[in-house]
Amino acid sequence: MRARWSCEHDGHVDNLCLPSTSQPSPPAGEPKPFPGQPNPLTVLTLADLRRRRSLKWRAYHPNVLPLWVAEMDTLLAPAIREALAEAVAGGDTGYAVSADPTGVVEAFAEFMAQRHGTSVEPAACTLVPDVLRGIGAVLSQLTGGGEGVLINPPVYHPFFSYIRFAGRRVVESPLVPDPTGRWGLDLDRLEADLARPEVTSYLLCNPHNPTGTVFGRSELLAIAGLAERHGVRMLVDEIHGPLVYPGGTFTPFLSLAGESAAAASAIVFTSASKAWNLPGLVAGLMVAGPDARGDVVSVPAPAIRGVGHFGVIAAEAAFRGGGAWLDALIEGLDANRKLLGSLLAAELPEIRYRAPDATYLAWLDCRELGFADPAAEFLRRGVAVNSGDMFGRQGSGHVRLNIATSPEILAKAVRRMSTDQGVDLD
C-alpha cells in the first residue's frame, strides 16, 4: 500500500502525521434531503459515506473503516443546509465580510447566552480562518521568540507544531489519570511549570482533546489563580465546548473574568466546525477578555486573513438555528460512547476506556494488548484510528477513536479490532 502522511489541522492538512492512500472518486450520488430523524448519526449508510471526498473517507483504502480524523458521519443540520443552498442559488459566492461580521458574531453571542448562560460582547469577537490560525497569530503577536508556551499533553497534536512554527518553545505540564481513568491536572506540577522563567503563556484545551476531560469551574479558577500568580497569559481552545454530555457542565473561561484577572486578560478560540461538522468551511472566532481587546486588535490583519464566506454563513446558521440538531447529535453521541464501552467490555476487555465527558473522541488505553503500535495493528485489521503517540509521549500505547458514526459502523469496527485478521488493502 503506497502511503503519504497527513493529519487534521481543524480544516487543513499537515503532511506529517498519519499514513494514507489516494483513492479514485466513487460515483457521485444524489444528495439526500435531511429526513428529520432524531439521531443524525443514523441517516447515512456506509455506501453513502464512501462517496464522500473529504479527508476522512479518502485517506485510506476503501476496505478500511475510518474512525480517526475529527469529521462526523452526518448530514448538515437543516438550518445550515438551507442557508448554504440559498447562498448558492443566489450566486452569493464572494469574499467574506471579515471587517464587520455582525451576523455570525451576534449569533454566537446569542448561542452562548442561551446555551451556557454567559454574556459575550460582540465587539470582543474577531473572525479568524480557524482556531489554529488564530492561536498562531496571537502567539506571534503577544510572545517573544524562544519564550515558553505551556500545554497539557496528551493534547491536540497540532499544538506542538504551531508553537514551534511560531518560534516558541513547547513546555509540557502533563495531565495524569486518576483511578477512575479521568485525566486531570496535577496542580502542584502545574504551578512549578508556570513558575519557570521562560513560560509566558498557557494554551489550555477545554474540553480536552483527546481525553474528553471537561475542567470544572473550581479547576478553572485554580488554573487562573496560578497563571495570575506567575504572570502567565491564558489562551484557551474551547472548540469542543458545545459537545458536553448530560451530567457535565461547560464553563466558558471568560465567564470567570469578574473573579480572575487571568480570565479577564485571556483570549478564547472557538468555532462551529466541530459541533456542526464544518471543518471544510473555514471560519473561527477569537474572543478577547475585557482586558485583552487591545491585544486582539493589534494582531496584524494578514495573519488572520482567509475566512471563508460559506464558513461565515454556515457558522451563523449553526449558532442561530442549529440547537435542536445539536441536541439530537449529543443524544446519539451519548448512546455511542456507552455502546463503545459495552462493545469493548465484550470484545476487547484488555482495553481501558473511560467514556469522555465531552467531544466525540474516545481515548483508549491499549497497553495491555501488548502491541508495539496499536494504531498500526488496528489498521492492519481494517480500522483507522489516531496513534496516541501523536498527542505526546504520554499517549504511548493509546489510540484516539472517533465515535461520531453510526452504531452499526462502530460495532463493525470493534469486531474488526478484536479479531487477528487483516483486511485486503491492495
Q: Which structural traits does this protein have?
A:
disordered N terminus, 14 helices, alpha/beta, 34% helix, four-stranded antiparallel sheet, Aspartate Aminotransferase, domain 1, seven-stranded mixed sheet
Structural overview:
- The structure is a single chain.
- This protein has 426 residues and is an alpha/beta fold.
- The chain folds into two domains: 34-77 and 323-418, Aspartate Aminotransferase, domain 1, CATH 3.90.1150; 89-321, Aspartate Aminotransferase, domain 2, CATH 3.40.640.10.
- It contains 14 helices and 17 strands.
- The protein has helices spanning 46-50, 55-58, 78-89, 102-116, 131-142, 158-165, 187-194, 217-229, 261-264, 293-297, 309-321, 323-347, 374-380, 407-418; strands at 4-9, 12-20, 65-66, 125-128, 148-151, 169-172, 175-177, 183-185, 199-205, 233-237, 267-271, 284-288, 352-353, 361-365, 383-384, 386-387, 398-402.
- Strands 4-12-11-10-9-5-6 form a seven-stranded mixed sheet, sandwiched between helices. Strands 13-14-17-16 form a four-stranded antiparallel sheet, covered by helices on one side.
- α3 runs antiparallel to α11.
- The protein is globular, with a radius of gyration of 21 Å.
- Mean pLDDT is 91; it is low at 1-34.
